[in-house]
Amino acid sequence: MHVGFIGLGNVGGKLAGSVIRNGLTLTVFDLDRSAADDLIEQGALFGSSAKQMATDCDLIITCLPSPAASAAVLESEDGVLAGLTPGTIWAEMSTTDESEVMRLGEKVVAAGGYAVDCPVSGGCHRAATGNIAIFAGCDRDTFERMLPVLTTLGRRVLHTGELGTASKLKVMTNYLATANLLSLCEALVTSKAAGLDLATTYEAIKISSGNSFVHETESQVILNGSRDINFTMDLVLKDIGLFQQIAEDNNVPLEISPLMIQIMKDGAERYGDREWSPNIIRRLEDACDLKVLADGFPAEIVDDEPEETGYEVGVKSE
Question: Does the predicted TM-score (pTM) go above 0.85?
Answer without folding.
Answer: yes
